[in-house]
Design goal:
By secondary structure, the protein is α+β, with helices and mostly antiparallel strands. The protein is 25% helix and 28% strand. It has an 18-stranded mixed β-sheet that branches. β27, α11 and β28 form a beta-alpha-beta unit. α12 crosses α13. The two termini are 36 Å apart.
């Protein structure tokens, strides 16, 4: 069963003896489906210079900023204001050359500066301590590495500008003229920097490649506002060079007292400061900038004191005159509270029993009473949001296609690219009309429910009200765990049983209904769960088929993670959690969705492809094919010490491709590339994820077939990581196969799916307004990569907001799909998501991997890992820290779709 080397996979010789895999090139375009013209949020970029660009260069200079004492200054905070002052003060020395500054360490010019190096000293700012309130804000830049704290007290700065290199505009000319080009990203980064400079000059807020008009606030919650703006980035495509523009949103902190901010964000309505959670407060405040009222200076918060202000002491050195007239130095221990009240004569009304703000560092803390600190304006709020806050943000930022297009047209008018001098000097012009592209509408697959009834989806959805499940699960016994005191449980249970029977599941009354005792309701979530499991012990022997858990509140209740862990890991019982919004009556649609999830968890199938349709997918229906979905879930912002969770789902029961199992592992924080696919124990033994998937595929498939093909769907990686997917993750999969199958490896196809992008499609209606494109839209021309094999697919029906297509990149195809075959398979896999009777926006295996990773992340308890620094720097320093083991699942759970 020797696998032939695919002529499609492109490789290049690396510096070592091994070969490096590169993303494959496109060989053809798809043809099937009805043609559909749509608009997209791309603006054509033209380069008016002649094609001979031998003398046309961009010049790149390094910028170093220091204060008058030679200490490094954080350019991200005040770099733009300093460079604006440089342009004004040293205009003649710089020969009046226009420049674009990235807000950090890079300066771009079109013509070279007279000298290769400048040392410009004595750049004076009018008010360095409050500059961020009145000038454009620039956060992020190209680098996220940690920098020293800015010295806000210094108003005199020194600037060093040093020539670094130059590069030709030739790549931009070629991209604009649709000529073959070496896709060096330097020139396109330069264009992005020029746009950032243009926005900063127009007094906009600048966050990397996102720009915000100051008055465009949508309101949010308490001390936080939602700012609406737009993002832009240059993209080289098959159709030439384009500017991709889209609406975006950012959470901005309102200026004001730190105490008011904490009360608002923690939703403490009675304004009692003793109810503030100080651990949460420490995470919320770290890295934010405050102005201290007693000296009107601006600082960055590094943390909070461990003790209250009245108890937090420090050593204060004093100089006194001795008896003989000689100066004597003494050291006195004094509390922060006493120092400000007695030595500074400042009246403190609230600070006595509150922590202090630390504006120094852990080794050399500098403590300021909390009530003397006010947050300065125009700072992004990047901390984790609660479930309610996330829902509110989605509602605030949701824009219909017509509203989105109007917002973008307004942004184009306000930005006025034609007035930008550096773009003109470069010979670059940007059109104001949105690009039209030709797409194709793929027909929906035909599905089958129970009793061999065909389901014909229309507009990406199908009616399941009067249908039976394709393969109903068997429920021998089940239990109810009720954490909610509001539900009419007797009615809910009977309605659920009735709905299940209508769908083909034989379901009797529960063996027992366990209701949480009132005295436990105020306990911590883990305690409440332990008490419930202890109460249920008799009902767990013999083991029930599943447990229905009624949660006290909607979504991400703090009981959810501990409950899932105890049931799935400790008890080995699948569980379904519900949180009805109506305590007295639950509608039939809600119950149907619950039944779909229960059936999938217990090994049943709700619907699958019809035999006729599945046979048309002949490359996977006739040849044993293993399908993998891979994703990595990371800890929330501000908690960099939390481990990342890698999840891989694998298909089973071939020739079916509707049923999956999941394997989940922990890995070091913020590590995106999965390192547990192959874990060799000896030459013939491997404990990695892939070996388990291969074994499960063979034992569950027809005639115990081994996979001759493997299709890998990878989520969550950017273009810069494609090589890692091909040369690290894929290499692990190949090694696992060779160990398992004695040096033989199946043929492989690797596809990356991306959802975090800004490409949108719009269908124009007869009245010139815009609506979402119909489900099944495929676009693989004009705005796609100029050489690589990629396409956009909008499989779902976008009824709310503007549809976001999935962007698929085919990195490797040894199987040898035609474009139509592969696009049809990808589109079809969006229709077998067992939790829903609608097509999903990305293939089901990736959805399942995302669910599995997210669910296990909630199951890992804080005590499972050592809490460490919560900065991004901590992620790098914790690479050797021990990782918590993921929850162990017994065989009867691990082989199910427990994550549904």
């Amino acid at each position: 069963m020797e696998s032939e080397k695919s002529p499609i996979a492109e490789t290049v010789e690396g510096s070592s003896s091994t070969t490096e895999r590169l993303p494959m090139a496109r060989e053809e375009y798809g043809k099937s489906g009805d043609t559909q013209r749509v608009s997209t949020n791309y603006l054509r970029v033209r380069m008016d210079r002649p094609k001979n660009t031998d003398d046309a260069y961009f010049y790149r200079y390094d910028v170093s900023l220091t204060d008058k004492n030679g200490h490094s200054t954080n350019a991200k905070d005040i770099g733009r204001e300093i460079m604006d002052k440089v342009c004004e003060t040293f205009h003649d020395e710089l020969d009046g050359v226009r420049f674009a500054y990235d807000g950090d360490k890079i300066l771009i010019t079109i013509s070279s500066l007279p000298k290769e190096e400048y040392q410009l000293n004595g750049v004076a700012l009018e008010d360095a301590s409050s500059n961020r309130i009145s000038t454009a804000l620039d956060v992020g830049g190209e680098s996220d590495r940690k920098r020293p704290r800015i010295s806000y007290r210094s108003k005199i700065f020194n600037v060093k500008i040093s020539f670094k290199d130059k590069f030709s505009m030739d790549s931009i000319v070629k991209a604009a003229n649709r000529e073959p080009l070496d896709l060096s990203q330097d020139a396109f980064r330069v264009l992005d920097i020029i746009l950032r400079q243009h926005s900063a000059e127009k007094d906009r807020l600048v966050f990397r490649q996102s720009f915000f008009e100051r008055p465009e606030t949508l309101g949010f919650q308490g001390a936080i506002d939602v700012f609406q703006g737009f993002s832009s980035s240059f993209r080289a495509t098959q159709g030439g060079l384009f500017l991709n523009m889209d609406v975006c949103h950012a959470l901005i902190i309102q200026p004001g007292p730190v105490i008011d901010f904490l009360l608002s964000v923690q939703n403490i309505r009675d304004k009692k400061t003793d109810r503030i959670d100080w651990e949460k407060a420490k995470r919320m405040l770290k890295g934010l900038r405050v102005k201290t009222s007693h000296n009107n200076e601006e600082w960055k918060i590094s943390g909070l004191s461990e003790k209250f202000c009245i108890n937090q002491t420090f050593e204060m050195k004093q100089r006194n005159e001795g008896p003989d007239g000689v100066e004597v130095q003494s050291v006195e221990q004094i509390s922060v509270y006493e120092y400000f009240v007695t030595r500074k004569s400042i009246i403190l009304k609230q600070s006595r029993a509150l922590p202090c703000v630390n504006i120094g560092n852990s080794r050399h803390p500098v403590y300021i009473p909390l009530e003397l600190c006010s947050l300065v304006g125009l700072q992004r709020y990047t901390k984790p949001l609660s479930t309610e806050q996330r829902s509110l943000l989605v509602n605030k930022s949701r824009r219909s296609p017509d509203e989105r297009m109007e917002d973008l047209k307004k942004a184009i008018r306000n930005h006025d690219y034609g007035s930008h001098a550096m773009l003109r000097d470069s010979g670059i012009s940007i059109t104001t009309q949105f690009t039209q592209v030709k797409g194709r509408i793929l027909p929906a697959p035909i599905l089958k429910s129970g009793n061999d009834q065909d389901l014909n989806p229309k507009n990406g959805r199908w009616n399941f009200n009067n249908q039976k499940l394709a393969h109903p699960a068997e429920i021998k016994s089940w239990l109810v765990a009720d954490f909610s005191s509001n539900c009419d449980m007797e009615r809910l249970i009977q309605d659920l049983i009735k709905c299940a029977k209508m769908k083909g599941i034989s379901m009797r009354d529960p063996t027992a209904n366990f209701i949480e005792r009132d005295q436990y309701r105020d306990e911590q979530a883990s305690v409440r769960v332990d008490k419930m499991i202890t109460t249920m012990e008799k009902g767990l022997d013999p083991r029930p088929t599943f447990i229905l858990c009624v949660l006290p509140q909607k979504k991400n209740c703090d009981i959810y993670g501990p409950w899932k862990r105890r049931c799935l890991s400790d008890c080995g019982v699948p569980t379904q959690c519900i949180a009805p919004t109506e305590p007295t009556r639950v509608n039939n649609q809600y119950l149907t969705n619950v039944v779909l999830k229960i059936n999938a968890k217990l090994g049943g199938l709700n619907f699958l492809f019809s035999k006729e349709y599945f046979s048309s997918l002949d490359k996977v229906s006739t040849i044993p094919t293993l399908i993998l979905g891979m994703d990595v879930s990371h800890g929330p912002p501000g908690q960099a010490h939390m481990p990342s969770i890698a999840a891989v789902v694998s298909s089973r029961n071939w020739p079916s491709i509707s049923h999956y199992r999941a394997a989940v592992r922990t890995q070091h924080p913020k590590s995106e590339i999965i390192d547990s696919l192959f874990e060799p124990q000896s030459k013939s033994r491997d404990n990695g994820i892939i070996r388990a998937a291969l074994r499960d595929f063979s034992t569950t498939s027809e005639e115990n077939k081994v996979p001759e093909q493997i299709i890998i769907f990878r989520d969550g990686v950017g273009e810069s990581q494609f090589k890692d997917v091909l040369n690290v993750e894929l290499e692990q999969i190949i090694k696992a196969c060779k160990v398992k199958y004695d040096q033989w490896c199946p043929q492989l196809t690797v596809i990356v799916a991306q959802k975090r992008h800004h490409t949108r499609f719009f269908e124009r209606e007869s009245n010139k307004s815009f609506k979402n494109v119909p489900p099944g839209l495929i676009v693989d021309k004009k705005i796609c990569h100029p050489t690589n094999n990629d396409f956009y697919l909008c499989a779902h029906d976008g009824r709310i907001g503007t549809s976001r297509p999935a962007h698929y990149h085919v990195l490797l195809d040894e199987i040898g799909f035609t474009a139509d075959e592969l696009q049809k398979l990808v589109h079809s896999l969006c229709y077998i998501y067992q939790r829903s009777t609608t097509a999903v926006s990305v293939v089901a295996p990736i959805c399942y991997a995302h669910l599995a990773a997210a669910q296990v992340a909630q199951m890992i308890q804080p005590e499972d890992y050592s809490s460490g620094p919560s900065s991004s720097h901590a992620a790098a320093s914790s690479t050797h820290a021990p990782l918590p083991n993921p929850p162990y699942f017994s065989k009867n759970v691990a082989s199910t779709m427990f994550f549904c």
